[in-house]
Amino acid sequence: MNPRLAAVLLAAALLFAAATDYVPAFIDADGKVFGLFQLDIYKDALHVASGLWAAGAALASRRAAILFLRIFGLLYFIDGVFGTFTGSGYLDLSIITQGIRNVPASIKFLSSVPHLGLGAFASAAGWMASPRGMED
Q: Is position 133 within any domain?
């Protein structure tokens, strides 16, 4: 896959993630997005910053997009693994503010799927991109 396109797709996904907190159709009666987790200003800021980083990298160059995909992919995938076991992440500092959450393992996993999926997609797109043409 074209790394610049992959970065644009990730930018769209991340900005969508930030927006879900403000769309009533995605929020249940308990204030949880998709019934799994509650976003807050810190998570929204993380998603917006990551989305802007993705968009900027896609616009800048193929090399910037590949670098973004590789770094972002690793950071988000590890955050997803961390969340699967603790229910909290390190990117949004929830492991510090909330500690290890006492929720069912299924909720920990399902809440971590977005970061696992985005991280895996970004890593694959970044590491599978041909190094040729890195200068454009």
A: no
